[in-house]
Amino acid sequence: MSQSPDAKRSVDNDMPVILALEASGDELSVAVHMAGELQAQICHAARHGHAALITPMIADVMTQAGISFADLTHVAAGVGPGSFTGIRVALATAKGLCLATGAKGVGINGLAALAHRLNLDIPVLVSADTRRGLCYAQFFDPNGTALGDVIETGADGISAHVPSDLGTLAVVGWQAESLAAALAVQFDSISTPRDVVGHVQAADIAAHAESLVASGDDNTGMTPLYLAPAFLGPGKKASQ
Description:
By secondary structure, the protein is α/β, with parallel strands linked by helices. 27% of the residues lie in helices and 25% in strands. A hairpin with a 2-residue loop joins strand 2 and strand 3.
């Protein structure tokens, strides 16, 4: 992961320098966030193979951002919910980087990061694909505070999980339109914003991590948010 000295830039030591990793879904992404702004992000559509791709992508994004690994103050990783293997790849890589650089690790709920990015003035329901036909979903208030735990459900079961006293709602993420349709009768107004990326990216992980660092709430640890056991598939037949 070496970098050309010419690629390095001046770094303000009083500002967090965050490398973020997100691999919980069908897109692997890495990003560098510094001085309150996204400096670089690389995304690669990949349902599988995150382990082989993440290291060279990190090297590339660091070069694009013009910083060295010694500059890092934090390494943030998406802890899920999502792909069991993808989450493990992001967290293992993040923990290794923390050990090597001394940077602080910050684990980020991907649904919360997406809610933080939306920054809407109404409550929001964020969903992600479970790869089992259902979705992971979580409700957030206008400030991005979770209104309950992450749930695993489908459109036919989401109505049972609606927090009380919500008159309006935005729905973003996987199967957002189906979820919104199932909830329409329970709300005065419901919408599915179309001008946003409907899945979490490393830039969202980084921005949410920076907000936690600024508020002193970044002692989140990096425990994976697994809601279901890994699907291991059929076993191999014994050789004859």
